[in-house]
Amino acid sequence: MVKISLNFWKKKKVLITGHTGFKGSWLVTWLKSLGADVVGYSLPPPTKINLFEIANVKDNIISIEGNVNDFDHLKRTLKEHKPEIVFHMAAQSLVHRSYLEPRETFETNVMGTVNLLEAIRHQGGIKVIVNVTSDKCYENKEKDTGYKEDESLGGHDTYSSSKACAEIVTSAYRASFFGSHALLNKNLYLASARAGNVIGGGDWSSDRLIPDIVRSIFDSSPLIIRNPNAVRPWQHVLEPLSGYILLAEKLWSSGDKFSEAWNFGPGKEDIKSVIWIFEKFSELWKEKIKMTIKESNEWHETKCLMLDSTKARKELGWDPVWNIDITMNKTVDWYKAYKEGKNMQEVTMSQIREYEKELTQKSGNLLNI
């Protein structure tokens, strides 16, 4: 079972790209609570309403506005702040937008990754890099079994393709520059992480199911669902983040052994359809939500996507804590708290503590507090 050490993160210098986004904001909040010294590098929050501002994520961190496509700025940031661990989460992360802006998608997701890895290559003192890509990096064959880390990469749309490219870039830099088998930087270790469809409080992204449902409730507007029977590996945002944190710890202590690609997805019993998620949200919100099914061919969407996380379970000791029912409850609770005007920094931190507590109970010996 996953064991995250509080003592490990105390005073560790951590750089997070994309820290103003949904997942980045949760990760910053968690690492701050574990005692890390966090520097964030990102564009401004991507939506008008956002977790970064609502939960005061920038408190007690160094927050730098920057673009991963700006190589010189990246180099200056690394030189000035001298991180020891880097989580790369900055990305153009929306499938629909990748159809409208394919060049920007490839620039950010591929060359942004190249820029960061190249800047790191010339900066001493960095020991660990976790590059967060996507479950969509796999060549999707619509199969009803989970994809394993050694299966072929690909992508029908430009977003998925860009993430497959980012994985290839990661592999090339690892083989050429990072790790004891590489030519240079033998004490620097690089791994990639592929997560499922993350949900949880604080997401307001466009064309994503939970934010669309929330907007429908808040605005009293009808919800349009495009592909009700599409199946996805839904998981609470804290699940893959616990995997990223654990992976970074393992890279620090036993670098080469863990310098690979890793899947972090839910168990098969928690892989549900879009319509199931909608109906569960409606049930928990206790309010009828107007919904229209309007299937669309505006962009390609896979019917079935699953991850096989056997390797992470066996070799990292990582395992999900919250099943889909708990995940949905926590997500609804967060948005209800926001609607009621509660302190969302406290609500967000409370859910992290609840997750840690259940992680402790499940593992028997988790946090060295």
Protein architecture, described:
The chain has 369 residues and is an alpha/beta fold. The protein has a single domain, classed as NAD(P)-binding Rossmann-like Domain (Rossmann fold), CATH 3.40.50. The chain contains 13 helices and 13 strands. The strands form four sheets. The protein has a seven-stranded parallel beta sheet, sandwiched between helices. The chain has a two-stranded parallel sheet with strand order 7-10. Helix 3 links the parallel strand 2 and strand 3.
Layout of secondary structure:
Blueprint: H1 6-9, E1 13-17, H2 22-33, E2 37-42, H3 51-54, E3 62-65, H4 71-81, E4 85-88, H5 95-100, H6 102-121, E5 128-132, H7 158-176, E6 189-195, E7 197-199, H8 209-219, E8 223-225, E9 231-232, E10 234-236, H9 238-258, E11 261-264, E12 272-273, H10 274-285, E13 291-293, H11 310-316, H12 324-339, H13 344-363
Parallel strand pairs: 1-2, 1-4, 2-3, 4-5, 5-6, 6-11, 7-10, 8-13
Antiparallel strand pairs: 9-12
Helix pairs in contact: 4-6, 6-7, 10-12, 12-13
CATH H-tier superfamily: NAD(P)-binding Rossmann-like Domain
Please state the structural category: alpha/beta
Count up the helices: 13
What is the strand content? 5-15%
Mean pLDDT: 91
Per CATH, the architecture is 3-Layer(aba) Sandwich
Number of domains: 1
Query: Could you spell the SSE succession in H and E letters?
Result: HEHEHEHEHHEHEEHEEEHEEHEHHH
Task: List descriptors.
single chain, 369 residues, alpha/beta, Rossmann fold, seven-stranded parallel sheet, two-stranded parallel ribbon, 13 helices, globular, disordered C terminus
